[in-house]
Amino acid sequence: MHLFLIRHPTPDVAPGICYGRTDLALAADVAAAAARIRPQVPDDLPVYSSPLRRCRELAAALHPAPRHDDRLMEMDFGDWEMQPWQHIQREALDGWAADPLGYAPPGGESVGELQRRVHGFLDELVTQDIDRALLVTHAGVMKVLVGRVRALPVREWMSLSFDYEGVVRIALD
User: Fold this and answer.
1) What are the chain's domains?
2) CA 38 to chain CA mean position, Å
3) How does DSSP classify residue 135?
4) How far apart are CA 166 and CA 79, in angstroms?
5) pLDDT class of 173 with cuts at 50, 70, 90
6) Cα(76)–Cα(58) distance, rounded to whole angstroms?
7) Is residue 7 within 8 Å of 59, Cβ to Cβ?
8) Cβ-Cβ contacts under 8 Å for 120 (sequence gap 6 or more)
9) Which of 16, 78, 80, 134 is least surrounded by CB atoms within 10 angstroms?
């Protein structure tokens, strides 16, 4: 199976703000973003998308009937959501850095929880009778997927970065 992972366009949020599960609008025209992405992916692929607006709108511009799945949402940062990173307590950030898979921001989820739900989505997708699919999602989800396919250590896949509107192709055996 081949997956085309697409990160949503730039969201309408100030730089330096922690956002994950927050349902943000897009900062730019979604039709223009879709026009830039369309030549990079095959036609007529099934499209799966995070239900968050920044992904949902792009998915709808790329496909007439995208399928939305909550497991493709970005990590829930809980009480950190929409807070400037610089205002989050240093001790909390250090705790997260020391144990990313186990530490959850207050009211949020850990990277390990994100990983389990994304792996659950992928495991279910593999059982379906499809060769290729397109996923419109978030950087955190893309890190988990690329990390799994490439068998990367946690610290390595967590340090990956993906551009807004970036397309990454991965192949599953």
Assistant:
1) 2-171 (3.40.50.1240)
2) 19
3) E
4) 28
5) confident
6) 21
7) no
8) 71
9) 16
Amino acid identity at 78? G
| Nearest one of 41, 88, 91 to 66, comparing CA atoms | 41
pLDDT at 129: 87
All residues at 6 or more sequence positions from 82 whose CB lies less than 8 Å from its CB, including other chains: 13, 17, 18, 19, 22
Quickly count: other Cβ atoms within 10 Å of residue 20's Cβ.
21
What does the pLDDT read at residue 84?
98
Q: What is the DSSP string of 26-95?
A: BSS-HHHHHHHHGGGS-TT--EEE-SSHHHHHHHHHH-SSPEE-GGGSPP--GGGTTEEGGGS-HHHHHH
pLDDT of residue 63: 97
As a whole number, mean pLDDT of residues 26-52 equals: 96
Half-sphere exposure of 42 (CA within 13 A, CB side): 11
Say what angle helices 111-126 and 139-150 make with each other, to 10 degrees.
70
Distances (CA, A) of 168 to 34, 40, 163: 15, 10, 10
| Bridge partners, residue 170, by sequence | 3
What value does the mean pLDDT take over residues 104-119? 97
